Structures are given as structure tokens and as C-alpha cells.
Amino acid sequence: MSKSLRMLGILAVGAGCHGGVSDASNATSPTTTGTAPEAVDLDALLSSSHEGVPVGLEASNHVSVTVTSPQGDLRFFVDSGASTTVLSTELAAQLGIQGAQGHPVALHDLSVGSTALDGLAVVLNLDATNAGLRASGEDPIDGLVGAPFLNGHHAVLDYPDATLFLESAAPPNNLAKQLDDSLEGSGYDKVQAKINVVQFVNFQSAIDGSDDLNTIVDSGAGASLVELDTARALGLDLEQAPTQAATIGGARETFETTVDDLTLAGSHTITDRTLLAVDLSSINGQLTAAGLPAIQILVGGDVLIEQDAVLDYVGQRVFLLPD
User: Fold this and answer.
1) Which of 114, 134, 138, 177 would you label with 204, given CA atoms 20 to 30 Å apart?
2) Whole-angstrom Cα Rg for the chain
3) What confidence tens digit (pLDDT) does each residue in 183-208 have?
4) pLDDT by residue (tens digit) across 82-94?
5) pLDDT average, residue stretch 290-295
6) Structural domains of the chain in order of their starting residue, each with its CATH number
7) Is the pTM above the cut of 0.85?
8) Is residue 188 within 8 Å of 124, Cβ to Cβ?
């Protein structure tokens, strides 16, 4: 797949006309902060099968994690909307990794906690992204931990405790049910999903009672959005956004719209929500050419942080606190 599809996860609110990432809070009007849940001790629940790795919840609504290497500690974003792990061109050079930009390369000598960052990655120029991060007062990144790694290690991303759990041993057969019982028993809504062939967390949503809209969860996107053509087809009111959205391919014209109800998989409703509206035609063209449905809704880090999300690859679902 091309780099535009791989880098969907870097979609976020840009700093002015920069191609990078900045604080998405300027582009959304959060109205759903959730209610305080009962304590859910995921560390105890997962201790027999998963290692907990601390993560950082950034002002831009991204999730950062330390990746260790022979060159020292590196800063990556955890990106469920990236269909591969990504290395910056600078990091690839430091690691002595040879390969053309945008083509797969083998990973070695990198780890997240004690788990090897394995499989394949692509090398991409992240200069524009990092310029946007610096402009927003955040540190640059060396790469992205993508969806194949998260799914391959049956990750559980716990936003309330800022912890990424990665499978390190065979889990009990009923782990998914244990997670389900614990989180639903603590007041969470369960949004059942599936992992599609590019390993995105995928389900159907509705806006103000619409027909089903294809949706992914993207921890690498600072703001949630509706695809621009979808927003127009639904007759949503659009206003020019004060900031642009950016993918690795550059800035995109961006609008805002406020919806009465965004209902995820028929089980979790977010009310009075401001979303970005962004043209995803280049990314969706690649998806449809591969026989996959176009992305119409993207649930980003703003919602995941505000609603104390638990992104669960064990049972292929996301848990969110109700309004």
C-alpha cells in the first residue's frame, strides 16, 4: 500500500499551514468528558499474560511511547490508524537500515518494554510532521508503532492509566470475557469491532440516525472527523476550520461540523459533538481499489482521551465511558 494509506494515523490538526501535528483541542469543542469510573485494575487482570509499558498522553491527543534501541531511547507515537510501523529517515540512517523511502524494511534491535518491535516497517520523511510538533511545543518523533504490532501482540491500550499492555505469555482462554466483565461492570460501554485486513479497528457508526458509516479507531489522529463527501451527503452544516488537517502527504482543507448524535456500533452515543470534516479521497481511493470500504468516520485521540477509552485487541473492541 502507498504511504498515504500507511500514514492515515498521522492525520491530525496541523499548525497553521505546516504539514505536521499540533494541539487538536483548538479544532474541536469537547462536550463529553465522561463520568469517573470505578477503579479497573487492568494491570492485575493482565499480569499473567501482558507486560505494562507506560505511555504519555500528549497535548495534541497523541499517545507517545519509549522505544529502546542501540542508539538509546527513541520517541514514537502509538498509532492504531497506521497500517505499518514507521521509521523516520534520520532514524533509519542511524540504525544502518537500507531501503528506499516508502518501501518495507526489516526491523531489528528495537523494543517496546521487553517486547521486540518486530516485523516490517517503512521509512518515511517525518520532517513536516515534526515541524508541526515543534511549533506546538511538543518534542519530535522518531517513528510510529503501527497497527500490525498492536494486533500481533494483542495489545490493550489503557488511556485512564496511560499504559500499553503487550502480550508476553499465553493468556487465559477467558481473558476477553474477564476484560468484558470488568469494564462493563465498571460502567463502560462496549463498542464491538473487528480487525480488518489492514489491521485497523473497524466498525459501523451513525450520525443523527443515518445509515451505517464505515468507521475506524485511530489513536494517531489528534481529532475525530467525518469524511468531507460523507458530511456533504448527510447535509451537515460546514464551517471553515481555523486550522488545517495534515497527513504525511501534506495539509488538507478542513471544515468543522457539530452533530447531535454520533453513535458507535449501536452501543455508545456521543452527543453534541464537533467533528472535523476532511477530504480523505486519496486514502479512500487506495482502500476501495483494494476491495475495502472507504473510511467515513474516524474516532481520534480527542474522544479516546476524554472518554477514558480502553482499546482492546484481545477481544477486538473499544470501551468508552458514556456521557
Assistant:
1) 177
2) 18
3) 999 999 999 999 999 999 999 999 99
4) 999 999 999 999 9
5) 91
6) 3-320 (2.40.70)
7) yes
8) no
Residue 64 CA to residue 124 CA, distance in Å, equals 18
Name the β-bridge partners of 245: 13, 252
How far is the CA of 256 from the CAs of 26, 238, 239, 293, in angstroms?
A: 11, 6, 5, 24
Query: Which cell numbers in the block locate residue 208?
Result: 443523527
Q: Quick one: cell of 14?
A: 496541523
Whether the predicted pLDDT of 9 surpasses 60 = no
Report the C-alpha gap between 149 and 79 in whole angstroms: 10
pLDDT at 36: 52
The β-bridge relationship of strands 225-227 and 268-278 is: parallel
Cβ-based neighbour number of residue 178 at 10 Å: 15
* SS3 call for 83: coil
Q: Choose between 273 and 38: higher pLDDT.
A: 273
* Of the candidates 142, 151, 164, the residue with the CA atom closest to the CA atom of residue 56: 164
Alpha-carbon gap, residue 109 to 119, rounded angstroms: 12
d(CA 230, CA 95): 42
- Residue whose C-alpha cell is 463498542: 191
**Which H or E element spans position 259?**
strand 254-264
Beta carbons of 241 and 121 less than 8 angstroms apart: no
